[in-house]
Amino acid sequence: MPTRNIFKYFALLLLLACSFSATATQYRLGSGDVISVSVHGEPDLTFEQIRLTDAGTFTFPFIGEVDANDKTPGEVRNLLVEQLKDGYLKDPRVSVSVVNYREFYIAGEVKAPGGYPYQPGLTLDRAIALAGGLTERASTNRMSIVRNSEGSRKAEKANMDTLVRPGDTINIDEGFF
């Protein structure tokens, strides 16, 4: 019987790891993200922190400006590998990962509106807690999130369980009695 429980426990851990990994690989980079780039065996081409510019780009030795905007870390990795193969390295082994996600913003009827660091798995109720909680005039029925969707910004109605993404702007409206 205990062996069956251990198996269930490991199966649950594997499922959680796979779902986190799938989410992380689908993350699209943008302005304000901080990434790390590592080229195995090439310390001059390894950077612990590179902040993407307002245009979502960064400068890399030998290559110049690299457009990372709206690309996954894996796509940026593939781009760097191809560019480095073109006359610089024989078989470059590159890894790209997100060090710090861009901020999300919260405005309206919260005690401390402003920008806050994104954390994977962040929900609206946790974002409100980061902003000091709701004011006494806040409406829990009139909340929206403005997010980038296919190049345009769209407002969506939100509730306390809505997932927050990096770069989102949350607005908590005033409630009317």
TrEMBL record:
<feature type="signal peptide">
    <location>
        <begin position="1"/>
        <end position="24"/>
    </location>
</feature>
<dbReference type="InterPro" id="IPR003715">
    <property type="entry name" value="Poly_export_N"/>
</dbReference>
<feature type="domain" description="Polysaccharide export protein N-terminal">
    <location>
        <begin position="22"/>
        <end position="98"/>
    </location>
</feature>
<dbReference type="Pfam" id="PF02563">
    <property type="entry name" value="Poly_export"/>
</dbReference>
<dbReference type="GO" id="GO:0015159">
    <property type="term" value="F:polysaccharide transmembrane transporter activity"/>
</dbReference>
<protein>
    <submittedName>
        <fullName>Polysaccharide export protein</fullName>
    </submittedName>
</protein>
<dbReference type="InterPro" id="IPR019554">
    <property type="entry name" value="Soluble_ligand-bd"/>
</dbReference>
<dbReference type="InterPro" id="IPR049712">
    <property type="entry name" value="Poly_export"/>
</dbReference>
<keyword id="KW-0732">Signal</keyword>
<feature type="domain" description="Soluble ligand binding">
    <location>
        <begin position="104"/>
        <end position="148"/>
    </location>
</feature>
<dbReference type="Pfam" id="PF10531">
    <property type="entry name" value="SLBB"/>
</dbReference>
